[in-house]
Amino acid sequence: MTFNWDLVWSSFGPIVGGAVTGTIPLTLASFAIGLALALLVALLRLSPNRLLSGVARFYVSVIRGTPLLVQLFVIFYGLPSIGVKLEPWPSAIIAFSLNVGGYAAEVIRAAILSVPKGQWEAGHTIGMSRPQTLVRIILPQAARVSVPPLSNTFISLVKDTSLASLILVTELFRNAQQIAAFSQEFMILYLESALVYWVICLVLSTGQSALERRLDRYVAH
């Protein structure tokens, strides 16, 4: 068996191009929406209103208790059966955002709870309302705690976007699949796509470490 280096070089551009135009935008859009949703769900989970807290808890339970692939298929293939038809890209963004929201909500909730209750009292003492205390005092401190797990969620999302190829979203792995189907060199193309994913995640992991060191300067020891 000979290794087809010509195929490796010729396919490198389309695979990286799929990452730039598909994987990375899909990851950024889904994570941004998912993070906003996660904050809302986390606050609902902490709400004294049992109904709101229960709805948020149910959402988190469903997301964490079902596979991402099933969630993706329900949105793209299942919703048309009840008259809701979505294109591949919106379907992928919705599925990934909902998934991130479910997992990140627990991270944010735990980070908020890790802030000493005295911080709430301090905000009240200087005349801040509860929302003002949350935004100006609690969330900045919670953000430092939540950076590592949220960064891990982001890195996992980069890899999870490969599932979008199953609903015909053109991204990194989809391009590799198409080239492999044409050339019949499946091992080479799949290893090459794995290498590109690894490099992206390696860069993100390095950035995560740098961000953690920077935030650690502002934490009292």
Automatic annotation (TrEMBL):
- Molecular function via GO: L-cystine transmembrane transporter activity
Q: Localized where?
A: Cell membrane
Please report the record's description of how this protein sits within the membrane: Multi-pass membrane protein
Q: Which PANTHER family match?
A: L-CYSTINE TRANSPORT SYSTEM PERMEASE PROTEIN TCYL, MEMBRANE COMPONENT OF AMINO ACID ABC TRANSPORTER
Keyword tags: Amino-acid transport, Cell membrane, Membrane, Transmembrane, Transmembrane helix, Transport
Alphabetized InterPro entries for the sequence: AA_ABC_transptr_permease_3TM (IPR010065), ArtM/GltK/GlnP/TcyL/YhdX-like (IPR043429), MetI-like (IPR000515), MetI-like_sf (IPR035906)
One CC-aspect GO term: ATP-binding cassette (ABC) transporter complex
- Species this chain originates from: Arthrobacter bambusae
One matching Pfam family is: BPD_transp_1
Q: Which SUPFAM superfamilies match?
A: MetI-like
**By what name is this protein known?**
Cystine transport system permease protein
User: Where is each ABC transmembrane type-1 domain found?
Assistant: 20-208
What the record says about family reads:
Belongs to the binding-protein-dependent transport system permease family.
Keyword match Ubl conjugation: no
Q: Where are the transmembrane segments?
A: 20-46, 58-79, 187-207
